[in-house]
Amino acid sequence: MHNILYAILLGIIQGLTEFLPVSSSGHLELAKHIFDDQSLAKESLIMTVVLHAATALSTLFILRKEVFQIFNGIFQFCKTFKPNEEFYFSLKIIVSMVPAVFVGLVWEEEIDSLFSGNILLVGAMLLVTGSLLFLADRAKTTGKKVGFISSLIIGLSQAIAILPGISRSGATISTSVLLGIDRDKAARFSFLMVVPLIFGKMAKDLGSGDLTASGDQTVMLVAGFVAAFITGLIACKWMIRLVKKSQLKYFSFYCFAIGAIAIIYSIS
Length: 268
Fold this sequence. Notes:
Elements: H1 2-19, H2 24-34, H3 41-62, H4 64-80, H5 85-106, H6 108-114, H7 119-137, H8 148-160, H9 168-178, H10 183-208, H11 215-244, H12 249-267
């Protein structure tokens, strides 16, 4: 029962922090440290993959209209070979993925080593996240759309956000807003651009054969998945509304507080 409750807690943390700009990876590392998680690397990896899959599916559900339009645009292009707005949007998502894919493939082992309970690093990166959110909340509101250059810059932010403690959604949304992109479009683009990366990472891990689960762990995985999916549905809709209302500064204060506590704790 204790393991199931722990899995549900991890699912709730992942569901909330994947969309709210406070770093899901950083909070998962903090939770594992607080609860003295002694899981083997492979066991921890499969739980992480399952939780990310849950939030990816919740993204697809909330933004199903946009996803349908993208696929419809690609289908129409394949029929007529005439580019349309949805087709160009899908290309921008691909462009945004390039930096993270490059970093993930070239420095995979170095990145994995960062996810080993390095609380000082998590705390410092949470301070970086808080600074980005604070600056973005003070940026002027404009109605610009995502362009190819801006999608690449947002993609660079996503690549940097691989570091535990830097919020992926916080970094990408803040970068978009600072570039003058419409806040609603910034949030939706941020959530859509990570979905292919999550499924790509899942396919890579599945192909490696490293993801195996015992019968006892299956119940934990299901519990974590359901918790992350339901929480993700709520957090995704909530975050889109918060970005439109320019209320990111409250999350910046939270990141400053948690980051400072993590740094003080790791030092002391």
